[in-house]
Amino acid sequence: MLKIEQVSKVFYPGTVNEKRALDYVNLEVSDGDFVTVVGSNGSGKSTLFNLIGGTFPVTGGKILLNGTDVTGKPEYKRAFTIGRIFQDPTVGTAAAMSIEDNMITAYKKGMKGLKISLNHAKREMFKRELKQLSMGLEERLKDNVGLLSGGQRQALTLLMTVLSRPKLLLLDEHTAALDPRNAQIVMDLTTQFIEKYELSALMVTHNMQHAIQYGNRLIMMDEGNIILDLKQDEKKNLTVPKLVEMFKSIKNKEYSSDEDLLS
Amino acid sequence: MIEGIFVDGLIFSIMVLGVLITYRILDFPDLTTDGSFATGAAVATISIVNGLGLFPAILLATLAGAAAGIVTATIHNHLKVPGLLAGILTMTMLYSINIRILGGRANVPLLRIETLYSRMPEQFSFLSEPWALLVGTLIIVMIVKLILDLFFRTDLGISIGALGSNEQMIVSMGINPRVLKVIGIAVSNGLIALSGGLLAQYQGFADANLGVGMVVQGLAAIMIGEFLFNTNKIFLISLRVIFGAIIYKGLMFFGRYYGYYINLTPSDLKLLTGILVIVSLVIAKTRNAASSADARKKAMKKNLAMREHEEKKEIEHA
Q1: What is the mean pLDDT of chain B?
Q2: Is residue A166 less than 8 Å (CB to CB) from chain B?
Q3: How much is the pTM?
Q4: In 10 A of CB B265, how many CB atoms?
Q5: Chain segment A96-145, per-residue pLDDT in tens
Q6: Nearest to B1 by CA among B9, B243, B124
Q7: Can you say whether residue B192 is alpha, beta or left, with left for phi > 0 and alpha for psi between -120 and 50 degrees?
């Protein structure tokens, strides 16, 4: 599915501000893998996602998606295979447009033509899709997305992202900006869609419990490296204290509390 | 006289529709307008003077405007300069080009030559001349509006709207935002040049300075329109723009006509237009703040009510 070979990223190279955000990282994600990614701030999680998604180019290394080299491809071309959801619920939808207009744009990836495809059949289909969210949005097709709450918008973003059937989901702390109740709803929907459409997924989270509870694999990042990679069996019996213990033994550092790891 | 204001306003409204596309739909402040409006007038006039025929003349004018838009979008896309600067560059270059098109002169008359506006009284001979011009212009504007409304209901049109609202979303949908910008800005300037081509025929001359201050006038008309009613439907938005354009022209007419009582000269009108835009911005801002505060209050009330309801349920359960 996804193969990252010797990928590195250096910001501001050759200046006093030079920062090596990723340090020759290797990672292979198989079809159907649901990988949770943890690590403290500045550990390189977001950089990794931005490189996979194509927000900025790599400094060195190769990124392969389904066997094809996408290292030099722009973000919008990679979007055909990758569905990405950001922490900010406003990034995934167009606030100034109605729900149905948002959905018709998301319905199919790629450049659009001079066709009017938003018809009765499509609206019925969108209503069926929106029912899955059980937020009553199916009655509000013509309302502007800007009128929805953060949780509703993020749920809609998730639905729109899977509507075009990507192969890989990049979830960048996509529930972090929501209140606990909505975060749970969006998280439940996420696992439901991943199973239903057999997607592979990478999910960054600061919630250790979520990192352990969801997915079949867990990686931990620190200072631009993947320092821990727990597969299915190893992950099953994992608890938060165990994870913290592992982190400490690898880093051989003393932490005053879990907080440093979580934040 | 009153028909004249309407004809003026209707021709102007096509230009404002173009400004609407860049400023409101694409969220791209495009200053090409001031140049491409005069380009449209120049191309239409020279084509007619050279006997190319009325329809090809107006088509060429539109295409010339679209080409100017493509230049702006390309400068913005490939040199990564802000849209404002790209527009200013094209506008400045267009000034020279427009004078070239007009054969080295700043002003070319269209006298004793058949134009759309000399044809209209013949076409609608059952109407008096002013009314014939009004009906003819209204038909043209309605056709343009219909095509534009349809365009913004197509998948392409909707994605252009989405680009203006959220560029990241367009990228996430696998669309190259640069291509959409080129299309949107080309359509916008095509309309602006079409409007210029019509105005030249209506007033009987093309002038290299015809476009000066057009952007601000267009914005004023859009903002006047936005005071009329609230909507997110494109056919109502474009209708609102046409109303706004006519009202703006009406206001300017009265400014010219009665202005001398308070010592107002026609050259003061640009100042007044600018002030009108600023006042509109202030009103819109306070209105927005008020309505969002209102919405927040409502949402909080709703949430509270919901929570109370659930708590009650739980208590009943217990």
Answers
A1: 91
A2: no
A3: 0.88
A4: 10
A5: 899 999 999 998 898 998 989 899 999 999 999 999 998 989 999 999 99
A6: B9
A7: alpha
Which residues sit opposite A219 in a β-bridge? A37, A229
Sort out which chain B residues have CB atoms less than 8 A from A164's CB and list them. Answer: 173-174
For residue A253, the model assigns a pLDDT of 55
Rounded to whole angstroms, how far apart are CA atoms A10 and A23? Answer: 8
State the Cα–Cα distance between residues A234 and A245, nearest whole angstrom: 14
- HSE of B245, CA atoms in CB hemisphere, 13 A: 26
Q: Are strands B107-109 and A225-230 parallel, antiparallel or unpaired?
A: unpaired
Q: Which residue has the tokens 């020759």?
A: A24
Longest dimension (CA), chain A: 62
Question: How far are the Cα atoms of A96, A127, B6, B32, B73 from residue B27, in angstroms, in the given order?
Answer: 11, 30, 29, 14, 13
Q: Assess A16–B contact: CB distance below 8 Å, yes or no.
A: no
Residues found in chain A: 263
CB contact under 8 A, A105 and B169: yes
Task: Give pLDDT, residue B289.
Answer: 78
Q: What is the dihedral of CA B178, B182, B184, B186, to 10 degrees?
A: 170
Checking if the pLDDT of A262 tops 60, the result is: no
Q: What are the tens digits of pLDDT across the range B240-250?
A: 999 999 999 99
Between CA A40 and CA A263 the distance in angstroms is 6
| Alpha helices by DSSP H, chain B | 2-19, 33-49, 54-79, 83-101, 116-123, 129-151, 155-165, 167-172, 177-203, 214-228, 234-258, 269-317
Q: Flag residues of chain B having pLDDT under 50.
A: none
pLDDT (mean) for A21-47: 91
Question: For A8, how many CA atoms within 13 A lie in the half-sphere containing its CB?
Answer: 9
A88/B contact by beta carbon, under 8 A: no
For residue B256, give the amino acid letter: R
pLDDT band at A247 (very low <50, low <70, confident <90, very high): confident
Closest CA to B194 of B23, B41, B92, B68: B41
Asked if A112 lies within 8 A of B150 by C-beta distance, the reply is: no
- For residue range B212-240, list pLDDT tens digits in order: 989 999 999 999 999 898 888 899 999 99
Mark yes or no for CB contact A117/B151 under 8 Å: no
pLDDT at B221: 95
Helix (H, G, I), strand (E, B) or coil at A133: coil
Distance between CA A27 and CA A178 in Å, rounded? 30
How close does chain B come to A147, measured CA to CA in Å? 9
Query: Does any CB of chain A come closer than 8 Å to the CB of residue B164?
Result: yes
